[in-house]
Amino acid sequence: MNAVVSHRPIVLVVDDEERNVHLFEEILRAKGYATIAAHSGREALVLAAEKKPDLIILDAMMSDIDGFETVTQLKSQPVTRPVPVIMVTALNDRQSKLRALNAGAEEFLTKPVDVADLTVRVRNMLRLKEYGDFLLDHNRILEERVRERTAQVEEAHRDTILTLARAAEYKDAETGDHVRRIGEYCRLLALEMRMPDDFVVAIHLSSPMHDVGKIGIPDRILLKPSQLASEEWAIMKTHSLLGFRILAPGRSQYALMGAEIALNHHERWDGSGYPNGRKGEDIPLSARIMQICDVYDALRSRRPYKAPSSHEETVKIIRDGDGRTHPGHFDPAVLACFLRMAGRIGAIYHDYADA
Questions:
Q1: For position 169, what pLDDT does the model report?
Q2: CB within 10 Å: which end of the chain, N or C, has fewer?
Q3: How far is 169 from 239, CA to CA, in rounded Å?
Q4: What does 277-331 look like in DSSP terms, one character per residue?
């Protein structure tokens, strides 16, 4: 712990009487401490924030703001709160001591100050400050290591998720960066809807797994260059349940939200979707956000059975409908958010366009 302090401890002496300041400074310098001085409470507040002393010796009775108010303000600011304060006053009553301690002072001395008493209190308070600094620095190092480890775990999750999502997309090679775009769309809408940070991170990482169930769909159906027959379409729709079954055993928040999205991202607000015909708020919000993003990207993208639509055409279809897609399919709040952010959605598609 002693290695933490690599400088001479600095003591800020605060008193509106110059002779008292000189007396304290002589005593402290003789003990090897560096000193700085302030002659008012307001000056002490400024110096304490700028110079960051290791200890403050503060007179209680001053003409501008007294020591009690000064220590209250010192302890209200994060930068000066950790600095211990020794209050010095001519008052010798119990009420004044309690007032000083309640205001935040760590120690209390009565004038005339005994040099030996002052020396011991200063030494003890500086040890307290040194130990506090050591703990703060130790906690900071631990927090940095936790953040680094969390970032590594987060990156591992991200790699696993994208690998799993791309495994499904390899069966439909023309979709390319679809999974990357989906994550960015969903993140953008979640941010615009002011969702909590953990939701934003989770949907960003989980949404690319929405079609992982396609791994279980036969290529003859998945890659068919024409419209699917009714029995083929019935098989295709099972990818939602397959995706849920693949992801649901996972324990991370990303796997759990991924399972939720996989199962529900083809459900519609008006109840006309699949696999369970859920409607309204019975559909998880993550899936409601995912649904409109998936529809946008599907309309924009080339498929074996269709040419891609332009951004403008796609937004018009989502907003007004085209016989197959209808605005009633979407959560009205999510649809309104999508229309507000349509320009940025289009920019994401351009940034991650298929090569």
A1: 61
A2: C
A3: 13
A4: ---GGGS-HHHHHHHHHHHHHHHHS-BTTBPPPPHHHHHHHHHH--SSS-GGGS-
Q: Is the pLDDT of residue 57 over 90?
A: yes
Nearest of 169, 175, 186, 330 to residue 258 by alpha carbon: 186
pLDDT in tens, 193-220: 999 999 999 999 899 889 888 888 888 8
Q: What angle do helix axes 332-340 and 311-320 make, rounded to 10 degrees? A: 150
Does the pLDDT at position 339 exceed 90?
Answer: yes
Q: Which of 201, 190, 191 is nearest to 155 (CA)?
A: 201
Tokens describing residue 299: 């309309």
| Residue in 255, 276, 252, 248 with CA at minimum distance from that of residue 264 | 276
pLDDT confidence of 2, banded at 50, 70, 90? very low
Residue 1 pLDDT class (50, 70, 90 cuts)? very low
Round to whole Å and give the CA distance between 102 and 106.
9
The CA distances from residue 42 to 69, 70, 225, 239, in Å, are 10, 8, 79, 69
What would the pLDDT profile of 246-273 be if each residue is shown by its tens digit? Answer: 888 877 788 889 999 999 999 999 999 9
Classified as helix, coil or strand, 59 is strand
Instruction: Give the orientation angle of helix 285-300 with respect to helix 253-264, to 10 degrees.
Output: 60
Residue 151 has pLDDT above 80, yes or no: no
What residues contact 101, with CB distance under 8 A and at least 6 apart? 108
Eight-state DSSP code of residue 341 = T
Domains, in order of start, for the chain: 2-142 (3.40.50.2300), 176-351 (1.10.3210.10)
Q: Assess contact for 74 and 56: CB atoms under 8 A.
A: yes
C-alpha to C-alpha distance for 66 and 89, rounded to whole angstroms? 11
